[in-house]
Amino acid sequence: MSLNNIKSFFEPSSVAVIGASQIITKVGYVVLHNLLMNKKKLIFNGDIYPVNPKYSEVLGVKCYPSLKSIGKNVETIIIAVPAQIVPNVMEEAASIGVKAAIIISSGFSEVGNVKLEEEVKRIGLRSGIRIIGPNCLGVYDPYSGMDTLFLPEVKTLSSGREVVATPRPFPGSIVLISQSGAFGAAALDYMAGHGIGVRCFISLGNRCDVAEHELLLYFAEDKKTKVNLLYIEGIGKGREFFETSKEITKSKPIVALKAGKTGAGARAASSHTGALSGIDEIYGAVFKQSGIVRAMNLEELFDMGRALNLQPPAHGKKVAILTNGGGPGIVAADTCEESGLSVIKLSEDVINKFEDLKEKGELLPIIANSNPVDLTALATSDMYIKALKILLNDENIDGVLVITLPQTPSILDDVIEKIADVAMKQKKPVVSCVMGGTEMAEEFRVRFEKIGIPSYSMPERAARAIYSLMEYGVHLGK
Amino acid sequence: MSLNNIKSFFEPSSVAVIGASQIITKVGYVVLHNLLMNKKKLIFNGDIYPVNPKYSEVLGVKCYPSLKSIGKNVETIIIAVPAQIVPNVMEEAASIGVKAAIIISSGFSEVGNVKLEEEVKRIGLRSGIRIIGPNCLGVYDPYSGMDTLFLPEVKTLSSGREVVATPRPFPGSIVLISQSGAFGAAALDYMAGHGIGVRCFISLGNRCDVAEHELLLYFAEDKKTKVNLLYIEGIGKGREFFETSKEITKSKPIVALKAGKTGAGARAASSHTGALSGIDEIYGAVFKQSGIVRAMNLEELFDMGRALNLQPPAHGKKVAILTNGGGPGIVAADTCEESGLSVIKLSEDVINKFEDLKEKGELLPIIANSNPVDLTALATSDMYIKALKILLNDENIDGVLVITLPQTPSILDDVIEKIADVAMKQKKPVVSCVMGGTEMAEEFRVRFEKIGIPSYSMPERAARAIYSLMEYGVHLGK
Lengths: 478, 478
What we know:
Two copies of one chain form a homodimer. Chain A is elongated, with a radius of gyration of 25 Å. Chain A has a seven-stranded mixed beta sheet, sandwiched between helices. In chain A, a hairpin with a 4-residue loop joins β8 and β9. In chain A, α11 packs parallel to α16. Chain A folds into three domains: 136 residues, NAD(P)-binding Rossmann-like Domain (Rossmann fold); 160 residues, 3-Layer(aba) Sandwich (Rossmann fold); 166 residues, Succinyl-CoA synthetase domains (Rossmann fold). The longest helix of chain A is centred in the C-terminal third of the chain and has 18 residues. The model of chain A has no long low-confidence stretch (mean pLDDT 92). By secondary structure, chain A is an alpha/beta fold. The first copy, chain A, is 40% helix and 18% strand. At the A-B interface, α5, α8, α11 and α15 of A face α5, α8, α11 and α15 of B.
């Protein structure tokens, strides 16, 4: 399998937009506009050719009546014309040696037009043109400037006010591969809003050719990629996916959300992108064997992605919880245990060290020597650091979930940098929970995250994040 | 049981702050300061007496050496002195006819001082003084201005910048009763940050006297209360709680989060507020029988609270999902089914009506007549309204979960008011999901919520919210 082909989707030397349009709400307008803007900003380096027999010029650029009439090499085409015309476009593309096609057009197997999709697929196979889609959003690569998303960055509300609608997240190291375009668009919005950088986003749609495993292979070789996130409704090429994932997770983590778990979900998934969703338990077992960490909901997919992007995997599943609030500590402990982690009893050694600190007056005498370690509402930054060091140094503990409730009078924001300083000097993972919805809590979370500690607003989310680091780490050690 | 006693905690004609202090970081300072501010703002109407033999004046108000020396009736006392002194304070309070005591002080059964707590409890029982606490935050009632939270509203960061630390949510109709003070503080922060109004917040701590069921009874009679939220680590008076809840849920919903589900969580809960957490399954069964809706995590507690506060309960568990994105629809369907709701197949009648609209060109021909109803990325506001009306009018459907992804070009923000308009004209519940983390999505959610439709950023959360309306509604109909 040649990964060169795959590269044409992300770094083409030339692209043609089939169905380029002058009408602002049309896909062919938005895609062309975004590419031209990226070219102007010097992010995108390829040549850009609008194709549409209706126009001689679109957006100030010469428009060609057909692919052939361009008269130059075209590496990649983006197709945004009605489904019925797509086979003709593909035939023409084959005749001029196009390497890759992103078919945005819908109206194929997802609405029952299986034959039309088969026809397109056959042309691809015969001519060697690789296909992403049909019925997809395509690709967004912030490094190369390749952007086929037809969703406008800005929209105008009925009040006349302009708001950010589908922002593009900044460049980062998380690859997101999604079957669903809608989910993908919402996901990009979520990532942009939460400051999560993206290495590349790919919406696969009906997936008549290029599937997850080829993209995973491509990004396995890519130095900018640290984590792969998958949104899956059903896997077409099961064996390839399984074998590839097994290999890739030896060096880079994969987190997957499988939608269509229940009867109703599966029925919907099957009508949605024409994929037949298999039995949920099978996916669970395959994920487990391949070292794929399974996210149980959308929020978790990103929460785990952030954790695996920032923190090292753990060598085991024994977790310590450090907190200044009893209730949130209990909730975190519950979720850890429910996820299969072990909220271990503290070792003699740790207890002795805690007792020493209590005697010296450096920890409060009322602290129970149990896990979660509850420093109480009187906890100071220094108490956090001293307790955290002891926990991280204990060979019985594989990672620490730190809850800092910033609302108490005794805790100051210097705790953030101090915790990060201790955490970054060693190799066990640390994740943070800061509860609250207003300024102070938000400030804590953002600063934790910036300094390399993934931070969550709910103890359950932090627990699932450290679970992902432990689950993946234990797989790595096998 | 006299509810008059309970009223003394929320609307006292006079309060004494035992342990009033001039030192800004002390509990006795923060509590007194907040009460005096509320008095100045004319929210709090009671008389306020600082008590501390060390001072003759605190915060510009005369300070008394003892309760007796006040020489006037004192209805309620707030105790913020070391644990050992609390019995003396209680004896003195008994001698002057105090009715209620909020004991903020810690150092009782939660650290093994069971005898001291028993002593305090006995004085209360003998003298008729009702007690909230010890080891608690006490009470926040935005209507009466009674505020014993010792957490400052504003804190100063190390950079010198002042930020909102523990904001007080605005007045609303949700009662929040929490065993954990830390959870309570974080919860208030969350509610303030997400614009969720609170009727009253009570942190119960060790709960040596007043327990959940009495507060539930008190707020059952209260016209401002619409929903009760409980954070529970363990129930002390099981039978009373069970019987009371059964009665109350006939008119007002209760949502409960039970922490300490697992072994580790239960161990932590038991050391935390001295409560022995029972077996998780028993709680599940008791909740079910009493008509209490169980939240599985903290976020859900508030999500369900918002749903029950804004929307009517449903008569059954048959749900329809209306969406412009396939993937999120599938995820919502999964969560609905996993929660025991039925994502029903559409009736002949609904399908016929959809077909009519398709023929007229008012719905797209590619829409499959299945549930979730996927209007596709080309959906307009008008399509939403037409489909929603048909779904809500179908006797086979008990409620509708509407997903609007605002990122597509064809959907405009007028869809919000139009959906609300349809929803508010009938009696079945409607909840909304708007995915995304930036401006447009945020704007959609806030406007939905303001107009009476609870709105969530993830399909799973919206699904659990409509589950709470269906679970409670079915219980009501029994």
